[in-house]
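Human: I would love a firmer grasp of how sequence relates to backbone shape in proteins. Take your time, and here it is.
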Amino acid sequence: MSSRDRDWDGARLHVVTGKGGTGKTTVAAALALALAAEGGRVLLVEVEGRQGIAPLFGVPPLSYEERRVAAAGRGEVRALSVDAEEALVEYLDLFHGLRRAAGALRRFGAVDFVTAIAPGARDVLLTGKVSEAVRRRSRPGGPHVYDAVVLDAPPTGRIARFLDVTAAVSGLARVGTVRDHADQVREVVHSAETVVHFVTLLEEMPVQECLDGIAELRALGLNVGGVLVNKVRPALLEDSVLTAAAGGVVDVDALARGLQAAGLPEPDGLARRLSGEVVEHARHVRMEREARERLAAAARPCYDVALLEEGVDLAGLHRLAESLRAQGAV
């Protein structure tokens, strides 16, 4: 990858979280494309079993097998869906050589049993697979297989618990391979190579959850990345017009003259009807600007992710990726 400066130069694990409905999966996919654009090999991972990534790239549902989903400039994006049962089988095989036994355990619902007695174990299995992908090298002492890993993580309300590996295993194991595994995961999650990005909308509840999440991760000693403001629309009017309209003042006569000059029928009646929409738009813009001021209190870089009016597809993801690169996000 290029050595040019970027906001998160040196980060190799990009965790993407956000309140449900903010579009974190779309943003995670665009971020992966942006990271790969200069020749990088990037792995995009989902852990919630929602199969949200595959439709964005127009590919069949993801499995536990890593496979290419898109080219990006001189690089590529590969993806997988991490399943806790598959992660348990892989863990038992790697650390204990018990793949055949693991298959039997899976048939008997071993994962459900383990997570019933230690609820944090499922998260350790999921984050463990992600951490393994971050650490993996093509050969001992050789280059990493992936230049970056992007994790489409659980929502903001659960992200601290998901990443707090120490708490997850405190009642499960104090010594042994399980503890060693958890310590390796913790080392990756807390390293300078890992950053957690927050996706939000310019609305009260997503912004508040974003700020709460940032404070919670900071308290755990985790590295907070940027704030990605999704579904951004451009302001349609000049600031002076917006200020007046937000106060309920619209020059209906001027609006009618403009409509008449454009050749539209019944400009006076249309102007009166449009004036209400102008006021609504202006008040929405004011609300969004107030939300941006609140986000500024977190002292984190903010990046705009435009609303794709025509819907999200691979071409749209590439446009979002280029925008993120232009803003210095990667």
Observations:
- Residues 54 and 61 are 5 Å apart (CA to CA).
